[in-house]
Amino acid sequence: MITLSNVSKSFRTSKGTVHAIQDVSLEVKLGEIFGVIGYSGAGKSTLIRCVNLLEAPTSGSVVIQGKEVTNLPAEELMQVRRKIGMIFQGFNLLKTATVYDNIAIPLRLTDVDKNEIDGRVTKYLRIVGLEDKHDAYPSQLSGGQKQRVAIARALAQEPELLLSDEATSALDPETTESILELLLKINAELGITIMLITHEMNVIQKICDRVAVMENGRVIELGKTVDIYAQAKHPTTRRFVNSTYHKELPPSLLQELKETGPVVRLSFVGGSTSKPVLAQVSALFPVSPNILAGGIIQLKQEKIGTLVVHLNGDPEETKKAIAYLEDQGVKVEGVEVGDE
Amino acid sequence: MSEIQQFIEGRLPIIGESVVQTLQMVSVSLAISVLIGLPLGILLILTRPGNALENRIVYQVLNVFVNIVRSIPFIILLFFILPFTKLIVGTSIGIKGAIVPLIVHAAPSIARLMENALVEVDSGVIEAYRSMGIRTRHIIWHVMLREARPTIILGLTIAVINLVGATAMAGLVGAGGLGDLAYRFGHLRYEVDVMYVTVFILILMVQCLQSIGNKLAAKYKKD
Q1: Of these four, A176, A339, B187, B211, which has the most CB atoms within 10 Å of its CB?
Q2: Residue A69 domain-assigned?
Q3: Distance (Å, whole) CA B130 – CA B119
Q4: For B3-44, what is each residue's pLDDT tens digit?
Q5: pTM, rounded to two decimals
Q6: Could you tell me the residue range of the domain that residue A299 belongs to?
Q7: Of A242, A260, A287, which residue is a domain's last?
Q8: What domain range includes position B40?
């Protein structure tokens, strides 16, 4: 669907050249939801703008559905953009137009048949669940409703690809949840490929099939969401993954426990979730595991279980126990003070 | 009673005529100033750094030009551009002769007002419309001008009121109008009642214009 090859973008500012993205190559497959996560300034916003050429890359190539789109003449680029929907953190609706007009005006301006416009507006307002808000002005809507209008506006162009630029970052957790569900629905029912950028790991967790992690303008890790959760390699990725656990152990407790054995986080994916491995550990080694916290995270397709466990025992024996757990397909990670 | 009657019979026709002259000068020069100022304002916005037709030279030239014209007081401008006025309309006196300097005076201000109103338009919305593959001219009309309407109207209200003020000086080139009347009758002939009536009409006019402007702006403001 989208192939970015060695894309770089630098900006010249008064303080010198800023390399916003450097040599990024990635592919977004047809029908998937692909997430790009990174802290502010990582370059993800610039990256997504390079896809529809709102920012022209300094070098590299952007291929959308087999068509190289960098250096297209203005007229052709416009046609390409008409097939790519985009939603934004700030919703970007016309303040002076009703919900209906906010969706209808872009249709009128992109040469959509006049007789078709009314039907499309109604259809997509129904899909986003705002069929009763035709005549409302954006100022009369909540943030979530505004984002729904923006989504309806993007969908009404009947795109094959939807770009989402931090679409949930300005919304409260509950509204975020409902917008994410809407995006899942759009992806599943309308078959629209979605590329999104975010700084919130829960967005990745809930709806993304694959994820790229960005830092300092580069992609530092890329893979299936479940793999990233189970075996994040880069420290930044690990920090993002840990941010979804919400399990804070009091540092004093952690210090105290560490005197009698390590505190570890165990992650269970797929097959390893069903085995009674902790019971085995206490049976096989002179180690008594003490569960401190636990939970299951629902990814888009799989579940991941986590346990934070204190392994009480002799250092030699706990080492063996950890090796055994890893052998059984459980991912083991030490928990340090100030880790989460 | 007879004094009032005398005033009504003697001065009312001249006052009426002056009101008409003032309205003529204001409306004609406003219409043409908007026709010049609006595109100029749009050009200023588009050629600004970071915008669709970014062009440092065009922007700077326009910018300096607008500033120069705006820094000349109208009463000086009126005489300063006499040859230009004569070239354009064939005469430098009367209402025709006043309208040219009024336009030269008002158009750059309106351009600046437009620029300020348009620059306030949320750049995110413009970006969203660019991302949908919509032509720049459509973005100007359907996004920028539309969203800026309330600010544009308030700006134009100020421009009209300034024009009413400027027409008072147009009497100096024999264009008549309320200001001229107040000066000739009220000041030179010391007919204080004419002065009072004229001032009263001007106050009324400005009040009306401001109210209409406020109402229209409120009508288009939806946030």
Answers
A1: A176
A2: yes
A3: 17
A4: 788 877 778 888 899 999 999 999 999 999 999 999 999 999
A5: 0.85
A6: 251-334
A7: A242
A8: 2-220
